[in-house]
Amino acid sequence: MNATICFIGAGNMAKSLIGGLLSSGYATSKIIATDPTEAQRQALTQHFGIHSYANNAEAAVLADIIVLAVKPQLLRVVCNELKDALTDKKRLIISVAAGIRSEDINHWLGGAQPIVRTMPNTPALIQTGASGLYANPAVSTDQKSQAEHIMRAAGLAVWVDEEDQLDTVTALSGSGPAYYFLFMEAMEEYAQTLGLDAKTAHLLTMQTALGAAKMVMESHQDCQTLRANVTSPNGTTERAIQHFEAAGLKQTVGGAMQAAYDRAKQLA
Ligand code: NAD
To answer: Cα angle vertex 24, ends 16, 215, to 5°?
Structure first.
């Protein structure tokens, strides 16, 4: 792939995608970015050696693919700035903005625009993200591959067929890192109640989370099987699992995800 990619807004998410693309061998000359903040533009040149621009429309016309990476509340204004530069309707637009529907982006850009909307998550900032991707009907097969290539620079990229499914992605992987942080926080705290110092509790909690995730990813066994394998009859793990089940852990997780899903629908 050697399309020119223009990032509109060079904050955390854009820098993470740019860093991932460059470390996978993408040509420096094929990536450009815009930002109104001079310090951000200087950082791009210093860290990545890419060209940066203060004017969104001026940069967008130089690119084949435009990644909208500004805060959601700024997207409408940015689309208005870009509208006149995108009249040929050939360029692929990728939006990473949370909660803004592709239909709205398409409308703001004057219609008939190929748009991929993605829902990344925070670990994308360390190239370990999980993104859901939705393509509107104007996106070609080649453009879908290009969008996937770009989002893979930040981790896993998975397509959904319906845009509404991105609300489920939001409730799962979008908000999901915080669910694990909360669980880890609870484990760390109670390990201290049971006598460990804070640092030891923290180290063992982190490594346990990492080990469990790697086992699921590398063993090709499902979570239930892996759990059964480590749950000896009448052992310590069994006692803990019985407690979780009696306390309704799965219902609690389901309720939390439903709440996140409902909120995602409200925000869109
Ligand atoms: P950020 O604030 O770090 O970056 C936004 C950048 O846009 C800033 O550098 C800002 O100077 C620039 N900007 C402001 N106005 C602009 C304009 N008119 N034209 C061009 N650039 C402009 O934000 P972020 O965390 O990188 O988030 C960017 C998008 O990614 C958001 O829409 C957010 O919903 C989405 N997202 C972020 C994360 C995450 O973990 N950070 C996760 C999922 C989705």
So the answer is: 80
Residues in contact with ligand 1 by the CB-under-6-Å rule are: 8-14, 34-37, 40, 56, 69-72, 74, 78, 96-98, 120-122, 124-125
First to last CA, the chain: 32
How far is it, in rounded angstroms, from Cα 65 to Cα 57?
13
The first and second tokens of residue 213, run together, are 């995730």
pTM: 0.93
Tokens of 119: 């829902």
Give the distance (Å) from ligand 1 centre to CA of residue 32.
16
Which residues does residue 119 pair with via DSSP β-bridges, in sequence order?
Answer: 132
The complex scores an ipTM of 0.98
Cβ atoms of 56 and 86 within 8 Å: the answer is no
- The residue assigned the tokens 């998975």 is 158
Closest CA relative to residue 167, chosen from 95, 262, 255, 34: 262
